[in-house]
Design a protein that fits this description.
Elements (H helix, E strand, L loop, with lengths): L6 E6 L10 E4 L5 E9 L2 E8 L4 E6 L2 E5 L1 E6 L4 E6 L9 E4 L5 E9 L2 E8 L4 E6 L2 E5 L1 E6 L3 E5 L10 E4 L5 E9 L2 E8 L4 E6 L2 E5 L2 E5 L3 E7 L9 E4 L5 E9 L2 E8 L4 E6 L2 E5 L1 E7 L8 E5 L10 E4 L5 E9 L2 E8 L4 E6 L2 E5 L1 E5 L5 E6 L9 E4 L5 E9 L2 E8 L4 E6 L2 E5 L1 E6 L3 E5 L10 E4 L5 E9 L2 E8 L4 E6 L2 E5 L2 E5 L3 E7 L9 E4 L5 E9 L2 E8 L4 E6 L2 E5 L1 E7 L3
Antiparallel strand pairs: 1-7, 2-3, 3-4, 3-7, 4-5, 5-6, 8-14, 9-10, 10-11, 10-14, 11-12, 12-13, 15-21, 16-17, 17-18, 17-21, 18-19, 19-20, 22-28, 23-24, 24-25, 24-28, 25-26, 26-27, 29-35, 30-31, 31-32, 31-35, 32-33, 33-34, 36-42, 37-38, 38-39, 38-42, 39-40, 40-41, 43-49, 44-45, 45-46, 45-49, ...
Length: 578
């Protein structure tokens, strides 16, 4: 079953393009360009991705900037709509955000024989595109939108990307639909296993064999009550006297059932058991225009377990439990995912809460480390945050014959786990960590998940490594196409055929200079006198080359062209735990 969230795939310039990547246009030489996004400084920016050039580009502060790690948007329901002057139409596709909190949208425009995507900056009144080394302003452009799409369906057929709504009491999957009845267009529950849809009207539930199904991405459910609807709530119909009806869902007798939010009546009505049931508390279907790199995969209780999902433990009956996270109230909380029960759970306010939609952590390099009393070890895996900004970590503990994951809450001095309807406190537990992993490598072989560092002047990819030289352990540039690694020492570049490569997830690059390093910078070695060396990278003669940040020397040194090159301004490699 398909996720209802926008599908951003983390990738890099040396990876293949996903089969359903969104095509944005073409470069002046005809190369296809895809829709992407990447981080720069403190902004998340729309990007142009050109696989044939093995690069992505963003525009920022007047310049076009190359990016080698980015996300590509995937899906087949997006459309382009003409606009101008910084304006964005309904259902515009937000893909980024500035450091000051302004949302940026994906647009595209014609320039120098290309059709190039970029960022629509509403407060600037234009689209900016990256091209030819510069940032170019375009006043008339097209905007990427994801319109509401309703498709006719019948009793035995459900369209691809149908929006999931919930489950019936007997476990049957329910989708979002709508159907006409007595002059009204009414939100409907669609149950393919029952060969029909249902609406409610005038106190009764009515069966419909002619109906439409909502399809698409980017939808989510927001708590509401008493006829109120949050921003961006999806319209599902109209009454005969032209009042708008919205799509909501509520829990009733073991089901999660969609229906119609009727604002003037101050409630949600759902069709159930032949009756029209009134609910004051419910969730409203909202179109989420914006979504945010550890490998978190959006999923739901209706879907299977992704490959490489991180196993967290087992339930008392032996069912496997995976590590996840989900929103509750205004917190983002670690969650236990139990696929055999088609459920996920979080602990909050003394209770265990079920969640239908969540994210599952994937990867094969994580480790569990014992801890207690709210302590978290080095490289602990942050996965959530409270409403007041405290970071929460993934932990697990033994309880009632289970090994159950939950949230390590440092200020509370414990791990909380969801179990048996309650939130339970454990003082001793294990914490999920992602240690720095260095693996031996040689020749033309690079380990899976090797950390990408940049490109050489000839376009060869460079990975992060380290190697010994004259008693020092030094950060290295690893170039598989050249069958070796390189370090710099004593003013010269030295070739190494024995070296290690850094592998893992959650790394990023932060600007720094003059020997300084950012918080959580990665250590890459040590001099024979005991000084720590950090991993950095810098631009030089058309390359983006990693090397050693030598704090006492006030610079980054990189190996290039047989020499040790000194750079005052650079980026340092950091661990991003959240």
């Amino acid at each position: 079953m398909n996720s209802i969230l926008h599908n951003w795939i983390g990738t890099s310039s040396y990876s293949e393009v996903p089969s359903d990547a969104v095509l944005a246009g073409s470069d002046s030489d005809g190369d296809p360009i895809y829709v992407g996004r990447a981080r720069h400084a403190d902004d998340l920016l729309p990007a142009k991705v050109i696989p044939n050039k093995r690069k992505a580009y963003v525009s920022y502060d007047g310049e076009e900037l190359e990016k080698y790690e980015y996300e590509i948007l995937c899906g087949d329901l997006y459309q382009w709509q003409s606009d101008s002057g910084g304006h964005i139409p309904p259902h515009a596709m937000s893909s980024g955000i500035t450091s000051s909190g302004e949302l940026l949208y994906i647009g595209r425009g014609e320039f120098a024989g290309s059709m190039t995507p970029g960022k629509i900056h509403p407060s600037h009144g234009c689209l900016y595109i990256p091209y030819g080394g510069g940032e170019h302003r375009i006043d008339n452009y097209e905007v990427l939108v994801l319109p509401e799409i309703w498709l006719p369906a019948d009793s035995n057929n459900i369209p691809p990307h149908a929006v999931l709504a919930g489950t019936d009491t007997d476990g049957d999957t329910i989708y979002v639909g709508r159907a006409e009845h007595n002059g009204d267009l009414i939100p409907a529950k669609v149950i393919i296993n029952k060969n029909c849809a249902y609406i409610c009207h005038s106190g009764h539930e009515h069966i419909k064999h002619t109906f439409e199904v909502l399809v698409g991405y980017g939808y989510g459910w927001i708590p509401a009550n008493d006829g109120n609807v949050p921003p961006n709530t999806v319209e599902g119909g109209k009454t005969i006297d032209d009042e708008t009806l919205y799509i909501g869902r509520g829990e009733f007798r073991g089901s999660v059932t969609p229906g119609k939010i009727h604002p003037s009546h101050g409630c949600l009505y759902i069709p159930y058991g032949g009756q029209e049931i009134k609910l004051q508390n419910y969730e409203a279907l909202s179109f989420k225009l914006y979504s945010t790199a550890h490998n978190w995969v959006s999923s739901s209780k209706f879907e299977g377990v992704p490959p490489e999902a991180v196993l967290a433990g087992h339930d008392s009956d032996g069912d496997a439990i995976y590590a996840g996270r989900a929103h509750h109230e205004n917190d983002l909380l670690p969650a236990k995912i139990v696929p055999n029960k088609h459920k996920a759970y979080v602990a909050y306010g003394g209770e265990e809460h079920e969640k239908s939609y969540y994210e599952i952590l994937c990867g094969d390099l994580y480790q569990w480390v014992p801890a207690h009393g709210g302590h978290v070890p080095a490289n602990a895996m942050a996965t959530g945050v409270t409403a007041d900004g405290e970071t929460l970590y993934i932990g697990r503990g033994e309880y009632a014959g289970s090994v159950t994951p939950g949230k390590v809450h440092p200020s509370h001095g414990c791990l909380y786990i969801p179990y048996g309807g309650r939130e339970h406190r454990l003082d001793s537990y294990e914490v999920l960590t992602l240690p720095e992993v260095w693996l031996p490598a040689h020749g033309r072989s690079v380990p899976p998940h090797a950390v990408f560092a940049g490109v050489d002047s000839d376009g060869d990819h460079i990975f992060v490594g380290k190697a010994y030289h004259d008693g020092d352990l030094l950060p290295a540039k690893v170039i598989i196409n050249k069958n070796c690694a390189y370090v710099c020492h004593g003013g010269r570049e030295h070739v190494k055929h024995e070296f290690e490569v850094l592998v893992g997830y959650g790394y990023g690059w932060e600007p720094a200079g003059h020997g300084s390093v950012a918080p959580n910078s990665v250590e890459g070695g040590r001099t024979d006198s005991g000084e720590t060396l950090y991993i950095g990278r810098g631009n030089f003669e058309g390359s983006l080359t990693p090397g050693k940040i030598h704090p006492s020397h006030g610079c980054l040194y990189i190996p290039y062209g047989g020499q040790e090159i000194r750079l005052e301004d650079y980026e340092c490699l950091v661990r991003k735990y959240y």
